[in-house]
Amino acid sequence: MIEQKIGEIAGDVWRFIERQGGQADLNVLRQNFRHNDGLSADLGTGWLAREGKVAFLNDNGGIRVQIRR
Question: Which of 51, 64, 68, 69 is close enough to 59 for a disulfide, judged by CB 3.0 to 4.6 Å?
């Protein structure tokens, strides 16, 4: 199921952000997240946002994704 795959991507996104100290630039996240099935980090990030696990911060015209503790 595609929902299961998106959930797996969300877990990968979470771990990536954790390794970056709990927050990451959205563009850096996208660049470091390549899935050969065409699914993107945006889907996983959106999943985490919907669950209230990450927040988006304005960062001088860019966007940072931060884990909510």
Answer: 64
Taking only the tens place, the pLDDT of each residue in 2-22 is: 899 899 999 999 999 999 999
pLDDT for the residue 38: 62
| Nearest C-alpha neighbor of 9 from the set 53, 48, 56 | 48
| Neighbour tally for 43: CB within 10 Å | 17
> 7 near 60, Cβ under 8 Å?
no
- State the residue for tokens 């100290």: 21
Q: pTM of the predicted model, to two decimals? A: 0.88
